[in-house]
Specification:
41% of the residues lie in helices and 14% in strands. It has helices at 3-7, 54-64, 82-95, 107-111, 122-130, 133-157, 168-171; strands at 16-17, 34-39, 45-51, 71-76, 114-115, 175-176.
Amino acid sequence: MSDLSSKISLKDLTYIPYIDENGVINEELEGKIGIYAIFNQEQKLEYIGYSRNLLMSLKQHLVRQTEKCYWFKFYLIERPSRSILEEIRSNWLAENEDLPKGNAEEEILWTQPIDAKLTMTQEDKAEYEKNDELGKIKLLKKVARRLEEEVKQKLQSRNVTIEIRFNPKLKEDGLLDLK
């Protein structure tokens, strides 16, 4: 264990509101390398991750898990080092009494694009089955756009003002992920 990673305790870091009074995530984290922990409204740990661009990762999580992103803590490192970040993450996970669901059974919800296909109605599914390839793509885009509106409404209800742009190419596969 490196000296650095053993000294960084999650409990010693300060809770930071996920969304500040201007409706944005701390913009100073753009392009910063580090590890972060995300907490819900009651400051219960939901997920621990690390990134080469903390701001982008925090945006992705906010879009994917809006109701679970109310607070976060982070620690920056100067140079990318997966081994140091993994070590800190292991220590933080061990420090917490329970393994957060975001690092266990709900990990896919935190780390993978949103699958709009899971929101298809019975009518959508019936239409999908009878369509040709182009028709299926159009339907998946429609379903993805419908879900995109729901996500944006949730963000708006949290007073989020950051620009959210989804990758249009992924919508053809029924997936939503930030561009």
